[in-house]
Amino acid sequence: MKKILILGAGLVAKPLVRYLLDQPDFKVEVASRTVSKAVKLIDSHPDGEAKELNLKDEEGLKKEIADSDLVISMVPYGFHPKVAKFCIDFGKHMVTTSYVSEAMQNLDSEAKNAGILIINEIGLDPGIDHMEAMRIIHEVEEKGGEIQSFTSFCGGLPAPEANTNPFGYKFSWSPIGVLLAGKNSAQYLKEGQQVLITAEDLFKDYAIINIEGLGEFEGYPNRNSLPYIQLYGIQSTETMLRGTLRNKGWCRTMKKMVDLQLLDEEEKEWGGITYKDFIRRLMDNPAEEDIKKALGAHLSIEEDSDITQRLEWLGLLSDEAITVSKGSALDILGARMLEKLQYEEGERDMIILQHQFIASYPDDKKEKITSTLIDFGIPDGDSSMARTVGLPAAIATRLILEGKIEMTGVHIPVIPKIYTPILQELKGMDITFKEKREKL
Question: What is the pLDDT of residue 173?
């Protein structure tokens, strides 16, 4: 039997673990710093094992990797290069859902020399987005066409009936991860012109995106879209934009939270102060006693604005004592948002992923292609986020161990031998796209 080592037991791991345990010839070990989470995921399955492992214990990590056939790294992305280096040393394949960092890409030749495959970006976004994009791009190219424009927006949101708070958001994965993504700068190509957005202005650069059947959302750019022109092989395109989707009001609110330094990562002592005092400190203790008036003046917003109301609903303007005595403003905000923006029992989350292409053909014809994935979580079961992140990684793992993906080096899923069988299997799980074509 093949042994799979899964590092991490977070919010999206359950469908991944269960899929692999359902395969007849795999043994699955889940290693986590919090072993109770791993035990829960294994759920007494005879082919599963839970282990306590701290990634800082390099000797312990090496031993677990050496004893496995393939490693799935579901830990924070900063650890992936270390895990990958050990996989190279021991000749073990690796799968991760995270973006390829420069440090990871630099291991490509070493991975090839070791005869191993390291697949990255094999979750939802990145992951399913790449696979569906390449399916359509290759289809256009087979007809002799080329891509003139590509835009893509993806978001994990509450299902409409579960959208019950002023932020229009609930956490189906790490709150710190969501908030840290708001500190990224962004680059994209628009009508032939490169656009650079600083981290401070990320939430100023948003557009209204209509999703058929669901209405209007806000879409803002996600990191650097420019490398995907080459990765997707569409040098002909004049527009390349990959973005994040949120409910209306999110961007304006997040922009002011960034301005207020609520995403600051510097660790400080807070000494049991109230949330109101915490906010006053971030504003350098203004003389104005009324917190709403002080906040309005500091952020140049009306004191009764919807942004103020969201911060008040979150409890950040209250006399309640904060629960973090030492940490960063980001830690305090993350803990509060996780507490307040939770899914209630039985509520569903929702994934929206929409690609739009403009394709041109030799006979001067053009068409607009819209491909949309709308997926809902299972009430009292797996979230859509967990399914759409975990299942592509699980399917890729099976295909590698069965010898159906034979490659070496550092890759993302942009070639047919990877994306075709994964998309086909996801379709059988009702994770599927609806395609619309319009002549221009």
Answer: 67
